Amino acid sequence: MSAVIETKNLTKVYEGGRRGQDVHALKNLTLTVSTGEIFGYLGPNGSGKTTTIKMLLSLMFPTSGSIAILGRKDYGASDVKRKIGYLPEGAYYPEFLKGEEVLRYYGQLYGLHGSTLEKRISEVLDIVGMSRARKRLVRGYSKGMRQRIGLGQALISDPQILVLDEPTTGLDPIARKEIRDILIRLRDEGKTLLISSHELLEVELISNRVGILYEGDLKAMGSITELLTDRDVTLEVRGASPEALQRLTAKGIQSESQPQGVSLLRVPNTMSVYEVLEYCKNEKITLVSVAPRRETLEELFVRVVGAAQNEKKG
Question: Which domain covers residue 258, as residue numbers?
């Protein structure tokens, strides 16, 4: 697959940004986002995600390094910008406008007019599931509807690239599922999506690849399959006393209490399942089930960021 977004040694320094000291918001960032993929761009607050997005949108310029979008080094050119749709976090749209008027305004900013614009408005409203609410005022929209109309404005120019900042934060489970389905559909139609989010489960469900940023450094990048390699086995058991669980914990076996006297035991990679089963037998703990378990993206995120924090301290 060809690179749609490519950065090499991208660096941003805010001179005198903190108590007169330079702040290195981004440090030699090298990454590639390919055609037709969803790339999850993750990191704690202040890690440099927003700085990266601003530079990709040419709202800010790098201190050093390079950016190429759609193979173009002149990524700030107007014809390149038309191929990028952007949904900012917490976007605000005038409440006195109707949904279709919001899209009409943004369409005109992209240079669309007349029947071409009106046709595109109808297409976009259909894509984001807002056709029935096109003539309702924004002030009457729910948060999920506002997010849909925000996604609509990002799509109005029929861009090849979508940059989405927190597209599902604050939404209820149904609204998150609906937005997720829209994003997957857009990817399947060939669009490339870069998503910055703290909703790690949502990112895990739809992303092809992810990158984890910490204090301007890219600490991990790869496909979900490549990165989530930490696998273990979970035992569901019954009848484990608090004292027995403490003894298991001392042996390195993590436990989690569940309702109705059930506990989940996580078998570490350094120990065999049979070894843990023997411990359970000796403690007179009843085995209910055995299931393989894969590390979640949230656990990977905590592990990578935790390691980076420890490295900084050490």
Answer: 231-294
What global pTM score does this model have? 0.83
Q: How many domains does the chain have?
A: 1
DSSP assigned state of 139: G
Per-residue pLDDT in tens (0 to 9) along the chain, 314 residues: 689 999 999 999 988 766 668 888 999 999 999 999 999 999 999 999 999 999 999 999 999 999 999 999 999 999 999 999 999 988 889 999 999 999 999 999 999 999 999 999 999 999 999 999 999 999 999 999 999 999 999 999 999 999 999 998 888 899 889 999 999 999 999 999 999 999 999 999 999 999 999 999 999 999 988 888 766 788 899 999 999 999 999 988 888 888 888 999 988 777 888 888 999 999 999 999 988 777 889 989 999 999 999 888 86
Q: What torsion, rounded to 10 degrees, do the Cα atoms 304, 306, 311, 314 define?
A: -160
Ranges of H-type helices in 134-241: 143-155, 173-188, 200-206, 224-227
Dig out the tokens for 171 from the structure. 């939404």
Here the CATH number for the domain that contains residue 240 is 3.30.70.600
217 located within any domain: no
Work out whether the CA dihedral 91, 97, 102, 107 comes out positive or negative.
Answer: negative
Query: Which three-class secondary structure state does DSSP give residue 40?
Result: strand
Residue 269 in domain: yes
Structural domain includes residue 46: no
Instruction: Label residue 4 exposed, middle or buried (CB < 10 Å: 0-12, 13-18, 19+).
Output: buried
Answer whether residue 122 is part of any domain: no
